[in-house]
Amino acid sequence: MFLTLEGIEGSGKSLQIRRIEAYLKDKGMHCLATREPGGTEFGRALRRVLLHKGSASREPLSELLLYLADRYQHLKEVILPALEQGITVLSDRYHDATRAYQGGARGIAETAIETLALSLDLLEPDGTILLDLEPELGLARARDRNQLQGSSLEEGRFEAEELSFHKAVREAYLRLAGRWPERIRIVQACGTPDEVFSRITPHLEEWITTVLGKGL
């Protein structure tokens, strides 16, 4: 089973993916938590270029191609081999992030993004949790996190974007959820981590039953 977590900056994906991993392991499932960009050695090098606040400016299409390069390597090196071994893969971001960020916010045409994705034969997730919250709150969380971790420069490129950018990302995500409601489940990301996780678990239980044919 291949599950992904999506959301704007500061939506809590990294925290919740660890909780999902622990939850599924407690159920006796073999799980692998990974992320984009940066799920491979090659991807970690790309992550430094893509997310560093001080990295050189780039054309939106150049940015798109870098993300797709990271994704293809991630798919071939990590995701597919794990799935072939019966391991459930949990990815912090995947192709919906490209649809929202490079498509919805950067303005790259959907046809261009999907044509490239088709040429790479990208795998569609079995289920996606979209952690949704107001961009103002998400940005405040993300900036506080980066400051606490000392990563404001290394990881702060998108947090430095204007609020309008993040609003466009959120709107794009919500449109995607409207297009694929069976796969993409909107979960309100406000509240405590426990409250947010309690909203996620019913979807996990459903996917375990429908995708794997197992009951919890």
Explain how this protein is built.
The chain is of the alpha/beta class and 216 residues long. It has one domain: P-loop containing nucleotide triphosphate hydrolases (Rossmann fold, 3-Layer(aba) Sandwich). It contains eight helices and five strands. A five-stranded parallel sheet has the order 2-3-1-4-5, with helices on both faces.
Brief overview, please?
The protein has 216 residues and is of the alpha/beta class.
What would you call the structural class?
Answer: alpha/beta
Rg (C-alpha, Å): 16 Å
The number of helical elements comes to 8
Number of strands: 5
- Helix content range: 55-70%
- Read across the widest sheet, the strand sequence of neighbours is 2-3-1-4-5
- Strand content is 5-15%
Name the CATH architecture.
3-Layer(aba) Sandwich
* Alpha carbon gap, first and last residue: 15 Å
The major β-sheet equals:
5 strands, parallel
Number of domains: 1
Q: CATH homologous superfamily name?
A: P-loop containing nucleotide triphosphate hydrolases
CATH T-level topology: Rossmann fold
Low-confidence stretches: none
Present the secondary structure layout.
Layout: E1 2-7, H1 13-26, E2 31-35, H2 41-51, H3 60-84, E3 88-92, H4 95-105, H5 110-120, E4 127-132, H6 135-149, H7 163-179, E5 184-188, H8 193-212
Parallel strand pairs: 1-3, 1-4, 2-3, 4-5
